[in-house]
Fold this sequence. Notes:
CATH architecture of the largest domain: Alpha-Beta Complex
Oligomer: single chain
Low-confidence stretches: none
Strand content: 5-15%
CATH topology of the largest domain: Aminoglycoside 3'-phosphotransferase, Chain: A, domain 2
CATH superfamily of the largest domain: Aminoglycoside phosphotransferase (APH), C-terminal lobe
Distance between the termini: 57 Å
Order of helices and strands: HHEEEHEEEHHHHHEEEEHHHHH
Number of strands: 10
Number of helices: 13
Mean pLDDT: 94
Strand order of the largest sheet: 1-2-3-5-4
Structural class: alpha+beta
CATH class of the largest domain: Alpha Beta
Amino acid sequence: MTAASATGFDLARLGAEFALGGEFASAERWGCGHINDTFRATWGQNGLACRYIHQRINDHVFPDPEAVMRNIAAVTRHVRARLEAAGVADLDRRVLTLVPARDGRDFHVDEDGHYWRTYLFVERSRSLEVMEQTGQAFAAGRAFGEFLVLLSDYAGPRLSETIEGFHDTKHRFKNFARALDKDAHGRATGCRREIDALLATEKKAGELQALCARGLLPERVVHNDTKLNNLLLDEDTGEPLCVIDLDTVMPGFALYDFGDLVRTGAARAAEDELDLTKVGVDVSHYEALVRGYLSSAGPSLASTEIEHLTTGAEVIVLENALRFLTDHLEGDLYFKVHRPDHNLDRCRTQIAFLHDLEKRGDALRRRIEVLAEEAGI
C-alpha cells in the first residue's frame, strides 16, 4: 500500500522535503485531533526504523500558519533550554522537536499551498481521552502547571494571536447568536432546548473579561488548549512526558488552561457521550487536578487567580458548548465530525457538565481555599 492510498496524501514525497534521510516505509493517521491532519510515518535509516509526525496545518482554522510556526519554534526552543539548564535528561521525549525542512524553515509549503510540519515522534508514550485514575489527574495538573512555569520567563518576541479572540467567550456568544439568526442549514428546530439553555448564559460568558477589566488576571504565556489528550504520558510508568498541540500557545490567562484541564480531566465521561446521566464532575479528579496544578504553578499564581479557578472551569466549559453548537448550526465547518449531529452531541455534554459544575460551585471553591492553604500558598 502506498503512502497516498493509505492516507490520502503522498507522505513519501512530503517527507522528502524535510531533513529526514532514509527511505519511507509506512504511514497511518494518528491521534484524535479535531483540527489538523496528523500522520505517524516510519522511515528506514541505516537499518533502523525512525518515526515522525507529519502534520498538515488547517489554514481555515489558522489563517496565518507562519505565525503559528514562529510561536511553536520560539516556545519549544525556550522550553528545551529551560529543561536542559535544569539537567533534565531525554529531552526529545520531554519537549516537541521540530524537524527542519530542507530549505531551513520549520515548515514546508506544498504545491497546493498547504503548510506542513514534522516532529520527532515521542516514543513509548500514550495519551488519555478520559482520566483513568486519580493519580493521573494529579500528574496532569502538575504537568500543565509546570508548562506555565517553564514559559513564565519567556522574553522573546511577543507571541502571535494565532486564533483571534480564541478564549473571548463574549465573542463566542455573539458568534453563536449570529449563527442562530442565520440558521443556514435549518438545524435550529432540532436543538431548541440547547439553544434556550445557551441563550441564558450571556452574563456568565463575560465573567473572565470582567475579571480582566478589573485588573485581576495577569497576562501570561499559556497553552490555551489543555485537553487531557494534549499531554503525553510514559507508556510504562504513566509519568507526564511532554505537552503537545502547541498551535494555540499565546498570551492569555492561567484560568483558560486550568478551565480546559477541568473540562476534560475532571469529566466523568467523554465530551461526546450520548448518555447525559453519565456526564458531570468527578470530584476526586477535580481535587487531584487542583492539587497537582497548585503543586507546580501555585507559587507563581496571584491570589485572585487561585480564587477564581472554578470560574475559569465554568466559563471554558460554557465556551466549548457555544463553539460546538455554533459549528453545528453552521454546518460543521470547524470541528471534525464522525456521525450525524456529532457537534450537537458534544454541545449537550458540555451543557450538562456546566450545570453540574454550577451546582457544586460553592463547595468546589471552598475546597480550593483549603487546598491552597495546605500548600502554603
